[in-house]
Prior knowledge:
Structural class: alpha+beta
Amino acid sequence: MSLDEILSVTGKPGLFKLKTRTKSGFVVESLIDKKTAIIGINHNVSILKDISIYTYETEVPLKEVFQKIATKESEGPAIHHKVSKKELQDYFSEVLPNYDEERVYASDIKKVVQWYNLLQSNDMLSAINEEE
């Protein structure tokens, strides 16, 4: 399992594991409830491998951010994504001290933490760490 098989779909909660591609979109499985769904090509789909977080120097791939969180939490769950904006920003500053606070919003941090916890609870972190 790698991040190029994990999708985020705008307007739908959580993450999805890509099962197959079709002419008209994707067949996916929700990491939240394990239900299979068809996502049409008209949906805005992001592949986690293509997402990066802005820092003051460069962009850090999401995979590296997940690895930093996993190291900080000893592969355990991170803080809950519904904590206050200040708590999320303080936590993210510990994980990625040089993140660009003007370009990375609290809603972005919330998604990253939620996604990490979903991957962690589905026992998918080790596969992502091994991916090269």
